[in-house]
Design a protein that fits this description.
The protein is α+β, with helices and mostly antiparallel strands and about 650 residues long. Helix content is about 45%, strand content about 15%.
């Protein structure tokens, strides 16, 4: 076992008690990480990416293998293994994600072993601590995707490469080739291991001449069989729309580096991204500096800092060059093979701090734990959800839909998510016309005889919604919109079935700061008493940039008492106004809840805009508001408590 952990730089000898202590600490970290990951494993519903994984895992072997040569597709290994696993463990959310949990937990001892070979025992334990506490790894440990597996394989490959260079052995090099090949077939970006490792071998080949022949054989096995496939993949860069629907991150090299450092450091959103990027970049540079200043380094001692620096720079530079050609290929999850280099550099920095003063090392570990612990608490104790809730959206739909209703899904992925959670037959029409092509509403065919249309759409599908929105405006009228944690559930009636609703009427109300309200429409969500009112507001940016703006919509009686209200950002949850270009138009559907049986009387609608995001309006109940020009009645209620008249826009003002 000691031979496996032989470091590149010999550390001072440790006592048996210290070795036992670090071993027990490592075991405790593994147990803690497992408990943390398994506790909320099935809490959130599958995402559309996970629904895709289920679809591919159920495919037959020829279909799996065919995906190797398709542009924009990852390798088939993960889906083959997931399908084999699920045939025994089942296709539940818990069992599907458990297949990602296992390699995620295994990464902790693997990173420790790699840290022992490159750094000191204390630094190796610190790296394992970062791995165990990482909210980034927690997120992907609880996701039925390949990122935990490809990270695990990259750690195995990195360790076997260093061991092969140090001691050789055909079995070691065969294991390295197998692990790297498996990483490549798990995710296409696993191929970035080859240039990273090759640059390192070339840099230190003079000390490892005996490893030249086995390394060249391994490199040939890793590259030559995949030249035709790689050439075909590179051709996809000429058609970047086949790779992704939209850009996934920054396009400049420094921004990409900062995004990686921030994502690996914490996924917690409560601290400004720039501050987090600067903090973790400083820690990365501090780790490299600590290794360079090591008095034992010499030429051989440069190995750790060169290996880890190349582990960041080589994959990131290659990705940057592809992004510069117009391919939207950057995301931290794609470059997860760089994560061990970041954590080991951070551990080297924390180790240096602990060597200067033990409390400094404890502060570094505690700070990392607190930043990541805030993310755990949001989910486990605060009720916060970070994935789109297809489970709740489909349940909401099934409670209200009738047989024969048409259900629209924008893309195949969202259609698969609906199919995974559906407990009864649904007439789902997918509008995806193929990679790189706009959505085609004509794929719907005939409108349903029931006259009812439903739309289920994830928030990140909104950029693709425009052609569908135009089609819906032409043939249907909106009844209600409901956000179900990242999934929009829209209810529409075919126009001849919705005579109770009038079209959008034009408005021209300006707000200070360059915002204008151009159109408005109101409707009841359904016929049951107490159903919410659906207020559609059409906004336009008269200038850019706009300030962050908040919206308040209230239903008031003639005395100014509030019968129902709603508040939130202007433009909805996923269109913050500070990002709007000039002329940008957004429709905002606000759901205003009402009492079950409001008294028969005239009502008014009050729409207000506030500069501070999330600011609640001052209470108006019990006092009569000042008259505002343009104030008009909403209508009257009937015996069942439903507003029977067309609702009209009431006061609109900016405080």
């Amino acid at each position: 076992m000691q031979a496996l952990l032989k470091p590149a730089i010999a550390p001072p000898p440790l006592s048996p008690a210290a070795r036992r202590g670090s071993t027990l600490l490592l075991a405790g970290l593994v147990l803690f990480a497992y408990s943390l990951r398994v506790a909320t494993l099935g809490l959130e519903s599958l995402t559309i990416d996970e629904a895709d994984a289920v679809y591919y895992a159920r495919a037959d072997l020829p279909a799996q293998v065919a995906r190797i040569t398709q542009p924009g597709e990852n390798g088939p290994l993960y889906f083959l293994l997931l399908g084999f696993w699920a045939r025994f463990a089942g296709f539940s959310e818990f069992s599907l994600r458990y297949f990602s949990l296992l390699p995620s937990v295994l990464c902790i001892p693997l990173l420790f072993v790699l840290g022992m070979r490159l750094l000191s025992r204390r630094a190796a334990v610190m790296a394992a601590f970062f791995c165990a506490m990482s909210s980034y790894l927690l997120f992907y440990a609880q996701m039925a995707k390949m990122y935990s597996l490809v990270l695990c394989l990259s750690l195995v490959a990195a360790y076997l490469l260093l061991r092969g260079l140090a001691s050789g052995g055909r079995r070691t090099w065969a294991g390295y080739t197998l692990a790297t090949t498996a990483a490549l077939h798990t995710h296409v970006f696993g191929a970035l291991l080859a240039p990273w490792h090759s640059l390192f071998v070339v840099a230190f080949l003079r000390w490892h001449r005996a490893a030249l022949a086995p390394w060249l054989m391994s490199l040939a096995a890793l590259t030559l069989p995949y030249v035709p496939i790689g050439w075909q993949r590179l051709a996809a860069l000429e058609a970047p729309e086949s790779l992704n629907r939209q850009s996934t991150g920054p396009g400049d090299l420094l921004g990409m580096l900062g995004a990686l450092a921030q994502q690996y450091g914490t996924l917690f959103d409560g601290v400004p991204g720039e501050a987090l990027s600067a903090l973790f970049l400083l820690l990365t540079l501090g780790g490299a500096g600590a290794l360079l200043r090591d008095p034992r380094r010499g030429e051989q001692g440069l190995k750790p800092v060169v290996f880890l620096s190349l582990g960041v720079v080589a994959p990131l530079t290659i990705t940057y060059l592809m992004v510069a050609r117009g391919a939207p290929l950057f995301a931290a999850r794609y470059l997860v093979v760089t994560l061990p280099a970041f954590y080991l550099l951070w551990a080297a920095a924390a180790d240096r701090m602990a060597a200067a003063a033990r409390w400094l090392g404890l502060v570094a570990l505690l700070g990392f734990a607190l930043l990541n612990g805030a993310r755990w608490a949001q989910t486990a104790y605060g009720g916060e959800r970070f994935r789109e809730d297809w489970r709740g959206a489909v349940a909401y739909l099934e409670q209200r839909a009738t047989p024969g209703d048409l259900v629209l899904a924008l893309h195949h992925s969202s259609g698969r998510a609906i199919g995974y959670y559906a407990t009864k037959p649904l007439a789902v029409a997918t509008l995806d016309a193929g990679e790189g092509r706009p959505l085609d509403p004509q794929r719907v065919g005939a409108l349903p005889e029931t006259g009812r249309v439903w739309l289920l759409m994830a928030h990140f599908e909104l950029p693709d919604f425009k052609p569908v929105e135009r089609w819906l405006d032409e043939y249907t009228q909106l009844v209600s919109h409901r956000w179900q944690t990242g999934v929009l559930v829209g209810h529409y009636l075919v126009k001849e079935e919705s005579a109770s609703r009038r079209p959008l009427f034009r408005v021209d109300a300006a707000v200070e700061g360059g915002l204008a309200l151009r159109e408005a429409q109101t409707a009841r969500a359904s016929e049951w008493p107490g159903a919410p009112l659906m207020i559609t507001l059409g906004w336009e940016a008269r200038q850019a940039p706009l300030q962050p703006l908040a919206l308040s919509v209230q239903v008031q009686d003639s005395q100014g008492r509030v019968l129902g209200e709603a508040a939130g950002p202007v433009g909805g949850q996923f269109y913050p106004t500070e990002r709007w270009p000039q002329g940008f138009a957004v429709r905002d559907v606000v759901e205003v809840p009402l009492a079950t049986d409001p008294p028969a009387a005239g009502y008014y609608l009050a729409v207000r805009v506030f500069e501070e995001p999330g600011r609640r309006p001052e209470p108006v109940e019990g006092r009569r508001p000042e008259p505002v020009e343009g104030r008009r009645p909403l209508g009257i209620t009937g015996a069942a408590g439903i507003l029977r008249e067309e609702l009209l826009l009431g006061p609109f003002q900016s405080p």
